[in-house]
Write a structure and sequence with these properties.
By secondary structure, this protein is an alpha+beta fold. The chain folds into two domains: 2-40 and 85-165 and 203-214, no CATH class; 225-365, Immunoglobulin-like, CATH 2.60.40. The chain has ten helices and 21 strands. The chain is globular and about 85 Å long.
Length: 367
């Protein structure tokens, strides 16, 4: 029994250490999606923003990588902060321990069991086995030869499995830097996973074919934002003095939760083949101290927060009077890093971080 447990633990360590190459053999589609995700790119080697912030963190001089719990989980200290999240990091989470400062993941360490969710399998655990018939000439296998898979963990159906890292974070001064409401990880129908890991075409594994699988690129502001477009709406309403645009955030959290982000609604009027830019509405959360923006570890207060809230309908009023045949173009998008912070973080050379990324684009023809 001890030998079996030792081999199981060794297998899990090997799976992590080989940078998910072992997983690729049975899950090639998921592997390819994961390579572009910012779970995989969670380290200072692959995330320029994370590196820029860490370079300025006072803990860096002491060699204390304070981000390790989420950015490099299940990684030996000597490999931090260079080896990031792997398949094992998420699929061995058994539960979430809630704390005021930040939550923690509780990991499986007793055997080679991985956890996942699949509709219709909520009460099943699949253990690998081989069966032979016809005098041993025909072999039938069940499950994966690399791991058992347990579908009974409720946290994987409600999205609560994400809340070990994505719930909230307080700095050393007891100030909450960011927060994603845990009430969004309760329903089995709509939660973190259903939005950020939607079902897309392609089989999850080569062992058992399926038409769809959960997207392992993790749709967000850094990757595949087009998959999140359906959670935002823009409505137009004409008035006597002008018009209004209403932005509807259908997510169970603020439109963007990270304090480095900046969202804008850009509006253009087209009249008789001429375009005119109307006002731009900006939505941000700025943290700081003594009334001025500051680094996250120094922050003690919110300087400004007009980010569109969960399930909010934000109405923007325009005093431009419209005519028959006019066209209104509304573009809702964002910057990964607030342009005012680019220079402070030394990221002027990164063009991608200075690009405005479109989340929702709509036209309205005036009748």
């Amino acid at each position: 029994m001890r030998l079996l447990i030792s081999l199981s633990i060794l297998l899990i360590v090997q799976l992590s250490a080989t940078d998910i190459q072992t997983c690729k053999s049975c899950h090639p589609t998921i592997y390819n999606e994961f390579q572009n995700s910012f779970h995989k790119k969670s380290t200072i080697n692959e995330d320029a923003v994370h590196k820029a912030v860490w370079e300025k963190h006072p803990a860096k001089a002491k060699g204390n990588y304070k981000c390790a719990k989420c950015h490099t989980p299940n990684v030996p200290k000597e490999k931090q902060p260079h080896q990031g999240i792997s398949c094992i990091s998420c699929h061995t989470i058994t539960d979430i321990k809630e704390h005021q400062t930040s939550n923690s993941n509780i990991y499986e360490s007793k055997d080679k069991t991985l956890y996942s969710a699949q509709k219709g399998m909520e009460d099943k655990k699949i253990v690998y086995k081989e069966e032979r018939s016809w005098l041993g000439l025909v072999k039938k296998t069940t499950g994966s030869p690399y791991h058992d898979i347990d579908y009974r963990n409720k946290n994987f159906y409600t999205g609560r499995v994400c809340m070990g890292c994505h719930s909230h974070k307080e700095n050393g001064k007891g100030f909450k830097l960011c927060e994603t409401d845990m009430r969004g990880a309760v329903s089995k129908k709509t939660n973190c996973i259903s939005c950020h890991m939607p079902q897309v075409s392609g089989t999850a594994t080569t062992i058992r074919q399926s038409k769809t699988h959960a997207f392992h690129g993790f749709a967000g502001v850094r990757n595949a934002p087009e998959l999140l477009e359906k959670y935002v709406d823009i409505f137009y309403q004409k008035s006597n003095d002008g018009f209004t645009l209403t932005v509807v955030n259908k997510a169970p959290h603020k439109l963007l939760t990270h304090p480095l982000r900046l969202v804008q609604l850009r509006t253009t009027l087209k009249r008789a083949d001429k375009k005119q830019s109307l006002k731009t509405s900006t939505f941000v959360k700025i943290i700081g101290t003594a009334g001025k923006p500051s680094a996250p570890w120094l922050a003690t207060e919110i300087i400004k927060d007009n980010m569109i809230k969960a399930n909010e309908k934000r109405v923007i009023t325009f005093d431009t009077k419209l005519q028959h045949g006019d066209e209104i173009e509304a573009t809702l998008g964002y910057y990964i890093v607030n342009p005012k912070s680019i220079k402070k973080l030394g990221l002027e050379g990164d063009k991608a971080l200075q690009s405005f990324i479109t989340l929702k684009h709509q036209y309205f023809k005036i009748k």
